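Posted in: Protein Modeling Q&A

I'm a second-year student putting together a small comparison for a lab meeting, and my supervisor asked me to include a predicted structure for Phosphoserine phosphatase. I've never done this before, so apologies if this is the wrong subforum. The sequence is pasted below exactly as I got it from our records. If anyone can share the structure token output, I'd also love a short note on what stands out.
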Amino acid sequence: MFVPRDLETARAVAFLVTVALTPAVALAQTDPLPSWNDTQPKAAIVEFVEKVSKEGSADFVPEPERIAVFDNDGTLWTEHPMYVQLAFALDRVKAEAANHPEWATTQPFQAVLEGDMKTLADAGEKGLVELIMATHAGMTTDEFQKIVSDWIATARDPRFKRPYTELVYQPMLELLAYLRANGFKTFIVSGGGVELMRPWVEQIYGIPPEQVVGSSINTQFEMRDGIPTLFRLPQVNFIDDKAGKPVGINEHIGRRPIAAFGNSDGDLEMLQWTTLADGEQFGLIVHHTDAEREYAYDRQTEFGRLDKALDAAAVNQWTVVDMKTDWKVIFPSDLK
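Accepted answer (user: helix_wrangler)
Welcome! Here is the predicted structure, written out as tokens:
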């Protein structure tokens, strides 16, 4: 029998015995980001987290200041062939059409009912706002929450034929959990409607509704039959996109983030606000490059255009994730 003659040898033997007796699955679980390939983005994430969370480090950041902000569409879940909020609005137009016969001859509603996507696209942002005002307002916040919850439970993506909540990105779910395990508070900062996201984000992302910043319409307090209600009005309150994102972060979070994650030009100002400041910061862009497992697009697309922000990433040394190269899987179902 071999008997170690010194402490260092004893430690080495003990380590080898432990490894030999440890199941491979248990060893794999020590990797906080198992769905990420061992490429530069994963290494950059781990290096940043270790820097800011290790006490005594020159870059240590106290827990209350470890704020990480995430875009939603295209960053945490799929945004093609159209934003999920647009799919919701289109379904709402069809569901309410019988109560609005005028929509049959009024654009952009007529285009929705006739499936004329070209005319709908030509309506641009103005048309989208019209659809949202008509389908998201005129009800209480409780009524809207029920409509959203019922829809998100039954709606299916046209390509993958699965609920939208199953088309979240497994690598980003792991990243959210990894950050929280290291003292970060994670927020969604999205151009999507805040009340469209709040009913389901905690179950899917582990992010509570009070940590969601998004676009909103005006609401007003009313007493209805002795019951206090908040009624949704057909008026835009705030657009949480592009330059609006830093404003929304300041108003709702009250701290400048030290990490920001996005995928499009709509996230450019949020990434700039987060990373172009004193101290240790981290910026990451998800680049959609995998047409087989998901979608491939960047500078030439109507949804999630990545042009100015991609150029800015090189200048500002933000980490760019190549989905095809850097992610082992895309969706949670790919793990099965």
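A couple of things worth pointing out for your meeting: The beta strands are 67-70, 139-140, 185-193, 212-224, 227-238, 259-262, 282-287, 319-322. The first strand starts at residue 67 and ends at 70.
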